Amino acid sequence: MTINGWVQILIYFVLLTVLTRPLGGFMYRVFDGQPTWISRVLGPVERGFYKLAGVDAKSEQYWTGYALAMLVFNLVCFVTLYLLQLYQNLLPLNPQGMSGLTSDLAFNTAISFVTNTNWQSYGGETTMSYLTQMLGLTVHNFVSAATGIALAMALVRGFARRSSKTVGNFWVDLTRCTLYVLLPIAIVAALFLVWQGMPQNLSAYTDVNTLEGAKQTIAQGPVASQIAIKMLGTNGGGFFNANAAHPFENPNSLTDFVQITLIFLIPAALTNVFGRMVKSQLQGWAIYSAMAVLFFAGVTACYWAESQGNPQFAALGVDQQASSLQAGGNMEGKEARFGIARSTLFATITTDASCGAVNSWHDSYTPLGGMIPLINIQLGEVIFGGVGAGLYGMLLYAIIAVFIAGLMVGRTPEYLGKKIEAKEVKMTMLAILCLPLSILGFTALASVMPQGLAGLGNNGPHGFSEILYAYTSATGNNGSAFGGLSANTKFYNITLALAMMIGRFALIVPMLAVAGSLAAKKYTPPSAGTFPTNGGLFIALLVGVVLIVGGLTYFPALALGPIVEHYSMLAGNLY
């Protein structure tokens, strides 16, 4: 680890913290229906959408109606994206003549982008037409992100409202989020990326002769528009197979920094929105602080592990130059232009959030370095997390935290003036436990079935880590791949798609039930025995609950994968 590396990490975090409050204030006004500086321009557009769709912006929904609207919308999104991929060969804007996808790959990809996972069992530049990239994938990067933010607002209203039967209107939240938040920021980001050298065109691929005399096809297309929203919406689906390691998708160090800032920008701001909506910004900063503690723990551990390198390089008798490079840290699978600090920072951020974009190859990390991205997702991606998903995931853990605090002092737990009773705790646990059921269940299945084992690129504990990471990423709606696993098979396409659906919708429905239950409760003023939830003790308890739940759930699986691989590496056994 170097001072320069830590300076870059600290500059990033300071900038993120500075941006949190102003963006949070803007988003609060948007979702509260207050006028903003951009309302004069976009207000008529918003009202036009409502009129066209027959939506009454003043009419709100019960949590059941909110959930039904969300599910119907996502079903329509899935069907249209599925059909678009199947028949892209018959549609325009396909200068490369890309064929239609197989049914299982189209099914996997449609589920992937609808659930904000963006898992890619294909190479974007060799599989998807321009129309599919724009009308299908880019559009769903917007609406799946907006869905997550809308759902977070529904839960926050549950805490903020008193004796209310409604939690908002899904169609209004979806429209306002897309129109006022995602589109303006994405447009500015896309223009910046084009300025920095990222392609944005509809030209056919270019064939060139290299200096060595070989022929090479240079892929291009509408890249910048997709990359801007893939990062802002914590989607992660790359235009190119190499994702953010590709020079067209991440031209330089500045674009790399801007992209990782976009990943955390909205998740961080949502903590401030939460504080404003419950009338106490300290509550929002408490959630932000808990996320920050977990973030620094992860990036420190990952940076340290990759800086150590593999001690077996010298023992294997490699040449002196390679040995010295490894002694300075593990650069295998990393871009020289980014180095270890920025690679591990990117890996930590993208797996803290449900982004999945990568600028380095996680499969080439040291066992402990590769374990950190894995743990980040397994904790529920609540360390800032995906847009919306990170906040409502952390608030579910906050309910568990105050429930435990209530047990300690022998009184009914309260959070933000709402009594946390049996129904809320049951629904919260149902939402949290559906994730390990999917991750561990599908991992166990793939680890013993021939169809699952056939996709492994490595044997031993590293191969197990490949399988574990795939289902962790799918269930956590992250989308990044550990690498080394051949996942474009019917078995993996179908089971990973099922894992994505469980990770998204099996968590959302009970979460909305919690929102509806809390909104209907009366406000209970704090008393002398009320556990304060805006200070250091609550932050420590919340962090502890996240780590304990994650540790008890996943430590046995981690022990079979990266942990045993680390000790095997020290003993001279490599996989």
* Gross geometry: globular
**What radius of gyration results from the CA coordinates?**
23 Å
Proportion of residues in extended strands:
under 5%
The level of helicity is 55-70%
Task: Give the assembly state of these chains.
Answer: single chain
| Mean model confidence by pLDDT | 92
Describe this structure in words.
The protein has helices at residues 3-31, 39-53, 63-86, 103-114, 124-127, 130-160, 170-195, 223-232, 253-277, 281-308, 312-315, 320-327, 339-352, 367-378, 389-409, 422-448, 450-453, 460-475, 490-519, 536-570; strands at residues 206-209, 215-218, 414-415, 418-419. With 575 residues, it is an all-alpha fold. β3 (414-415) and β4 form a beta hairpin.
Describe the structure concisely.
This protein has helices spanning 3-31, 39-53, 63-86, 103-114, 124-127, 130-160, 170-195, 223-232, 253-277, 281-308, 312-315, 320-327, 339-352, 367-378, 389-409, 422-448, 450-453, 460-475, 490-519, 536-570, and strands at 206-209, 215-218, 414-415, 418-419. It has 575 residues and is mostly helical. It has a two-stranded antiparallel sheet with strand order 1-2.
